Amino acid sequence: MSANVAAHAVDSRRAWLTVIAAFFASGVTLGTAYSFGAFFESMSEEFAAANGSTALIFGITTCLFFSLSIISGRMSDRFGPRVVLVAGAAALFIGLIATSRVQSLGLGYVTYGLGVGIAAACGYVPMVAVVGGWFEQHRAVAVGLAVAGIGVGTLVMSPVSAALIDRWGWRDTYVFFAVGGAGVMLACVPLVGRPPGDGSPQPSRFEDALRSAVFRRVALSALALGLALFVPFVFVGQYAKERGMGSVQAAVLVGVLGGSSVLSRVGFGSLVRRFGSFRLYRACLIITTMSFLFWLAAGSSYAMLVLFTLTLGVGYGGVVALGPIVISDRMGVAGLGSILGLLYTAPGFGALVGTPTAGWLIDATGGYHWSIIWCFTAGSAAVALLTGLPVNKSGRLERASNARG
């Protein structure tokens, strides 16, 4: 094997550069999206909007991010990841600059939703699929490290957002994020490349995925999870501030969520060989669901809120890290970008419904009790939908024997 071939083989040093790129690309795009809770109060007050209406910005963004991953994942398969990253950088810059100048919440739905939604669709799912294609022996660890960028981005950007908003206001903060975020994404472009192979475009696997009964069950479970998972990103900070906590202290809760998810993304990825990807995935989903009971019992205790976000982060981080592994175990890595793009439309639609519904419940009832119960119920449904799937002795989903899986 020549040195040039070895340098571009799976599990090589070259492969780890894609992990670095995916880490930063997902971190800056998802960190921007998940820090929206820090902007929530300022935007809601300026536009005199109700909780449900303001939360719809996040719901639209998350829905577009996940659903557009069908397109960005397929684009990465066909044209390579560099084109996708450049498109994401442009969308992030234009979207945030435009949002910093909007004079109505309705226009913000378009500028922020499309800008950040497209950027996140380009910076996350396609990059995870590329990382998966560059690894065999160390795939679980590599994917775990790549998606840990989301947790680090959330950990850093949520409290930073709150501090910048206190000092400069929400509009200027979006300008800072536009310039810095686009710059980080462009810096990642030279680090990524097509996974090893013959250089030809990857096949579309949409039909294979849709024909698979197992895939459909996993996707429905992800939809149910999406109804619950994103509610705390928007509302836990508001919950804390309504109980007398400062804006930065409240934003730290989302940072804790992101920080704890980093450990689980890496840690659970390293445990796949011992316990199996699907077994761990289901356990993380249970942890995610049960965490809402801590929020329900928190009252005005900041310590309980920290415990809630810490536990949620552990469960959610594991779900995110293990999801691509679960699917690739079942369906292989060929055309993985298109498969993951289709899978992630499910939690996207869940977010579109879940976060505004939680906001409307808060407005209608004057409290958070029923919105938290909503989250716990949705998470329980997500766990139930995974019952009875074909799992082998190693704790992985059985490999599909044909396209119908």
The total of beta strands comes to: 0
Q: By helix and strand content, what is the structural category?
A: mainly alpha
Question: What gap, in angstroms, lies between the N and C termini?
Answer: 36 Å
Q: Number of helical runs?
A: 20
Tell me which CATH architecture applies here.
Up-down Bundle
- CATH class label: Mainly Alpha
Strand content: under 5%
Spell the H/E element sequence. Answer: HHHHHHHHHHHHHHHHHHHH
As for the CATH topology, it is: Growth Hormone, Chain: A
> Helical proportion?
over 70%
Mean pLDDT: 88
What does this structure look like?
By secondary structure, the chain is mainly α. It has 20 helices and no strands. Helix 2 runs antiparallel to helix 10 (170-188), helix 5 runs antiparallel to helix 6 (81-99) and helix 6 (81-99) runs antiparallel to helix 10 (170-188). The longest helix has 30 residues, at 139-168. The model is unreliable at 1-7 (pLDDT under 50).
What is the secondary structure topology, with strand pairs?
Blueprint (H helix, E strand, L loop, with lengths): L2 H5 L5 H22 L1 H11 L4 H17 L1 H11 L1 H19 L5 H19 L1 H10 L4 H30 L1 H19 L17 H6 L1 H17 L1 H12 L4 H24 L1 H4 L1 H22 L3 H30 L4 H8 L1 H21 L3 H16 L21
Helix pairs in contact: 2-7, 2-8, 2-9, 2-10, 3-4, 3-9, 3-13, 4-7, 4-19, 5-6, 5-7, 5-8, 5-18, 6-7, 6-10, 8-9, 8-18, 9-10, 9-14, 9-17, 12-19, 12-20, 13-14, 14-17, 16-17, 16-20, 19-20
